[in-house]
Write a structure and sequence with these properties.
binds phosphoenolpyruvate, alpha/beta, TIM Barrel, globular
Length: 247
């Protein structure tokens, strides 16, 4: 039985005041794994503040090397030092705005596991790719790159977030049946290599998840929760999404 998870991707939003508000008021029950991904600067403060509660903190990005002359970058081991337990890898904004290829994403995935961070591998097709009938082949290519670098064993301690790019920050959400079909496809790809790993891995849905659509998305068999952007900065809205995932 996969425990549901709801993850908050704050992107480059948030502030000291918002951290304080979350630390003082965020309340979720224990039946859902909750992970906050604030900008890196706030990792330590939130991870210490939430230590006693069942809320984890992750980073939105890591660099693949441990250390070195890479001005401005942060290594996975450093994220662990700051109290992070998870890292997003391959978010579509990293792929599209910062030119991260499938191979770069795979290197980051491996770096996370080397450091003891659980990678949350973000995959998903663009509007044009879906319109061209390529959604499954794009997602397959993104998973294959990580399989080549980390092997199927790499997915034993990882989370996948299926985030159709056309649904991120657009207010447009994949229909539950559309998302379910892609989640089943992703699990099916892993199933060819290892049934237990494919059965146990959490596959989250991301793309304009809100309190008003969360419950029907999370009711689908292969949707194990959500990766939430915009709606995760509003405490009450985020709490409702967590409740919708809670079993
Ligand atoms: C995201 O950034 O991962 C995301 C899903 O954003 P939003 O919920 O705003 O679409």
């Amino acid at each position: 039985m996969r425990a549901p998870m709801v993850a908050a991707n704050w992107k480059m939003n948030g502030s000291g005041a918002i951290c304080r508000e979350f630390l003082e008021h965020l309340s979720v029950d224990g039946l859902v794994d909750v992970v906050l991904f604030p900008p890196f600067l706030y990792t330590s403060r939130l991870s210490k503040g939430f230590e006693e509660r069942s809320i984890s903190v992750g980073v939105q990005n890591v660099f693949h090397a441990r250390s070195g002359a890479y001005t401005g970058e942060i290594g996975a081991e450093m994220a662990v030092d700051a109290g992070a337990m998870y890292a997003l890898v391959g978010h579509s904004e990293r792929r599209n705005l910062f030119g991260e290829s499938d191979e770069v994403v795979a290197d980051k995935f491996v770096a996370c596991q080397r450091a003891g961070l659980t990678p949350v591998l973000c995959i998903g097709e663009s509007f044009e790719e879906r319109a061209g009938g390529e959604a499954e082949s794009v997602v397959r290519r993104q998973v294959d790159a990580v399989l080549r670098a980390a092997g199927i064993e790499g997915f034993a301690n990882a989370v996948i977030a299926y985030e159709p790019v056309w649904a991120i920050g657009t207010g447009e959400t994949a229909r539950p049946d559309q998302a379910q079909s892609m989640h089943a496809f992703i699990r099916g790809v892993l199933m060819k290599f290892d049934t237990a790993i494919a059965t146990n891995i959490k596959v989250l849905y991301g793309g304009s998840v809100k309190a008003s659509n969360a419950r029907e998305l999370f009711a689908e068999q292969d949707i194990d929760g959500g990766l939430v952007g915009g709606a995760s900065l509003e405490i009450m809205e985020f709490e409702k999404i967590c409740r919708a995932a809670s079993r």
